Amino acid sequence: MECGHCGEGLSVPRGARVVHCAHCRGVTRVGRRHGAMGFVVNMITNMAGGGRTRPATPPRLREAGYPRVRGDKRALLVGISYTGTHLPELSGPITDVKSMSFLLTQKYGFPSQCVLVLTDEERDPYRTPTKSNILLAMRWLVHGCGSGDSLVFHFSGHGDQVRDEDGDERDGKDEVLCPVDSDPDDDGSDIRDDEINAALVRPLVHGVRLHAIVDACHSGTVLDLPNLCKIKKY
């Protein structure tokens, strides 16, 4: 179902009476039709033909023209060279994205129409890797995902650390990804790990597999996951 506040697609747990939106943090009441669970069953059960119904596409995703997902594989690939910005220019991110796209489509069977690419070479204004576009594309990546889906998020670009403002970081710093419109005088212009977690991690339902490949400084905890793996080197 859609969030009653922002239109984001929401996955409805069995028996839920209200659903919390990870994007806007609004609360939407679950409608009841055709019996106690009729509405929920209509939204998430498998169809007779073996397919799975997906929530209606939120208005902002329709406006952006991001690809309509078919099948159980999709990927978001972001590469930023930062040409003409205050950040040092990088020569590899665009090539990284092209290589990852080739790997996913040719080796792992991802449909090419289900791979969304954002780079600073794109002419489509919705595919330029600004902060708002990257967060919107993250919503596209997880929208309507279900058990058995395989999702990939790949980012190649600059990363940084800023002061933690909500007290949830042991070291007092949030890890961030730097979009193409990053502003050195505005910490809010970068994408904090809290925002990434809210956009990519919290909406995942049981059985969804997300691979995140982040080639950026300070990227080890940029998804703000509850567990940290430390590998001992011998």
TrEMBL record:
Annotated Pfam families: Peptidase_C14 (PF00656), zf-LSD1 (PF06943)
Biased composition (Basic and acidic residues): 162-176
Chain intervals for the UniProt region annotation (Disordered): 162-191
Residue ranges annotated for the Peptidase C14 caspase domain, each copy included: 73-227
Domain Zinc finger LSD1-type: 3-27
Domain of life: Eukaryota
InterPro entries assigned to the protein according to its UniProt record, in alphabetical order: Caspase-like_dom_sf, Metacaspase, Pept_C14_caspase, Znf_LSD1
GO molecular function list: cysteine-type endopeptidase activity
A Gene Ontology BP annotation from the UniProt entry: proteolysis
GO cellular component: cytoplasm
Family as reported in the entry's similarity comment: Belongs to the peptidase C14B family.
Alphabetical list of NCBIfam families matching this protein: LSD1
Name this polypeptide is given: Uncharacterized protein
Organism: Triticum turgidum subsp. durum
Lineage, uppermost ranks: Eukaryota, Viridiplantae, Streptophyta, Embryophyta, Tracheophyta
